[in-house]
Specification:
binds the ligand O=C(O)c1ccccc1N[C@@H]1O[C@H](COP(=O)(O)O)[C@@H](O)[C@H]1O, TIM Barrel, two-stranded antiparallel ribbon, 7 helices, alpha/beta, eight-stranded parallel beta barrel
Length: 216
């Protein structure tokens, strides 16, 4: 079965259209004002219209207030939420209850102990997404979308939950190897398909999807 691909941080009709044409299975919109990929709910609503029925629409939030979750649910009607902050298992259950949408929980990892954290979300999150924990020395690090990879062997060979999304520093050149090492069925990319922070590159999107889907 080919690897499913999520292209995250899309913010223009051209890049959404290109991602869909290249075979993206999920598209992500970021609702986090500090991110260079942040979009308003009005913009996301227009972008979601292009993607609906062709790929799953994912709304990425970071420790979001209820009001934002309600606004995204009403205006954008995503298929899933992706919680990328410090949300507890209880908060994930609450986001799921209020929105009526399954929730992906991002876990930032650097060590085996971080990987083990995912267990706590087994009953409330629909899926776990592994991302790299940014080093403390990284100035102006975002809660994700930093283009940093982690040691893939930490989640390889049955060391993690059976189903997960792999992210963190993936790009067209390394995604096939990442799939091989981890056995990931779904991969997610943001920085690795950009020419500068927040500006997606259509050629890199195409190359990434082709490399990920050709990986098994
Ligand atoms: O992309 C962002 O700006 C972002 C902001 C806040 C939280 C998460 C964010 N992105 C997600 O981070 C991972 C890894 O991204 P990258 O490929 O290493 O740039 C991915 O899931 C993005 O969707």
């Amino acid at each position: 079965m080919p690897t499913d691909v999520k292209i995250c941080g899309l913010s223009t009709p051209e890049t959404v259209t290109a991602a869909l044409a290249a075979g993206a299975d999920l598209v992500g919109f970021v609702f986090f004002p500090k991110s260079p990929r942040n979009v308003s709910t009005a913009t996301a609503k227009d972008l979601a219209r292009i993607a609906r029925g062709k790929a799953k629409i994912v709304a990425l939030i970071v420790d979001a207030e209820d009001a934002l979750i309600d606004e995204i649910t009403r205006e954008v009607a995503p298929d899933l939420f992706q919680a990328h902050g410090g949300e507890t298992p209880e908060r994930i259950a609450e986001i799921n209850r209020r929105s009526g949408r399954p929730v992906i929980k991002a876990i930032k990892i650097k060590s085996d102990a971080d990987v083990a954290q995912a267990k706590a979300y087994e009953t409330t999150a629909a899926l776990i997404l592994y991302d790299a924990k940014a080093p403390e020395t990284l100035k102006n690090a975002l809660p994700g979308g930093n283009g940093i990879a982690f040691d893939w062997t930490l989640v390889g060979s049955g060391k993690s939950l059976p189903s997960f999304i792999l992210s963190g520093g993936l790009n067209p050149a390394n995604v096939a190897q990442a799939v091989k090492v981890t056995g990931a069925r779904i991969v997610d990319v943001s920085s690795g398909v950009e020419k500068s922070p927040g500006i997606k590159d259509i050629t890199l999107i195409r190359e990434f999807i082709a490399a990920a889907k050709g990986a098994r």
